[in-house]
Amino acid sequence: MKPMSGILGEVYAARFLRDRGYSLRAANFGCRFGELDIVASPSEQDDLLAVVEVKARLEGSMLRPIEAVTAQKVERIKLATRVYLQAAGLKDVQLRFDVIEVWLNEQFEVTRVEHLPNAYT
Hints:
Layout: H1 4-19, E1 23-31, E2 34-41, E3 48-58, H2 71-88, E4 94-104, E5 110-120
Protein name: UPF0102 protein H8K20_05310
InterPro entries: Restrct_endonuc-II-like, tRNA_endonuc-like_dom_sf, UPF0102_YraN-like
Pfam family, one: UPF0102
């Protein structure tokens, strides 16, 4: 089960992307390799899929949220992306792997968000 900060982070990240013109293609797509938090396309690039890992942290955390995206996590995301593409019948699409960092205060209110396109390859 995801912690409350993770759930809120994903909800806010989805809204953040929609507000910036992205079309959400999938959320919480799960397979044996793991889960894709969000798959979205920028409005001007339908052939581009942004696979978005959302990381939320409480303010005052010692680490930035992106620091939780380890090499092992990246590998699982890439494997899950292959499964998603096959399940969705998608071919000839460009992929971009993004991270959205969400910071929350003690009342679980969003205080800051940062979208990092091409956070890893």
